[in-house]
Specification:
Elements: H1 13-16, H2 22-41, H3 46-53, H4 57-64, H5 73-82
């Protein structure tokens, strides 16, 4: 059996799929996961969460189901602050060892 040379992917499957907005979608997914965890831990219904977050229930449903294309990063960050979370954005220069990118930790 011969070993075939395989292309190595990145650590981001969305990038590997060739999505042009992979970094943004990844950031949105991380923020949505945090929102979903908080909503679940508090035992909130989607209607309860919608009232608390100041958004219509269908938007909450979209977040719960990770359908995030119509929801901005800003809106997700506002939802987190409505849930009592501190959101911090840090901008730093990139260099040759760390290319420009978007990182989100939640």
């Amino acid at each position: 059996m011969t070993n075939k040379s395989r292309d190595r992917g990145t650590d981001n499957v969305l990038t590997d799929l060739g999505l042009p907005d992979a970094q943004e979608l990844t950031a949105k997914a991380i923020l949505a996961k945090k929102i979903n965890d908080i909503v679940e831990n508090r035992g909130l219904t989607q209607s309860d969460a919608a009232g608390l977050l100041g958004m219509p229930q269908p938007k909450v449903s979209a977040i719960r189901n990770y359908k995030l294309r119509g929801i901005s990063l800003e809106r997700l960050m506002q939802a987190l602050t409505a849930l009592g979370q501190h959101v911090e954005i840090v901008v730093s220069p990139s260099d040759s060892t760390a290319p420009a990118r978007i990182d989100v930790a939640a």
